[in-house]
Amino acid sequence: MYQFTSKITCMHCGGKYRGKKMRDKLAYSCSTYEKKGKESCSNNFKIKEDDLVHVVSTHLQLQNVRVEGSLGEHVSVIEVKDGGYRIYYNDGTDSIVNDNSNEYGIKFKY
After folding, report:
1. What pTM was computed for the model?
2. Is the per-residue pLDDT at 33 higher than 60?
């Protein structure tokens, strides 16, 4: 079950990420890159569903949000850029994973 379908956007090309199985694990990749190749989008960054579940569930626990139903229901959009991504939640908060915007980078910000 892909909990984050239609929530993930590639900031390189504007395309949506779509779910697929990779080595018996659920993951997401840029649909433009998958369909048209690196000439149309240079973003070959893939996100494992397990990683998204971990970040989203940890963030929601820290915010004292009770989860009922799918974790994806709490997410408005996930923006992917330069090997990292930012998760925006419906309550206005966000999480950052592997932000490369500064020289040290941020591995996780819940």
Report:
1. 0.86
2. yes
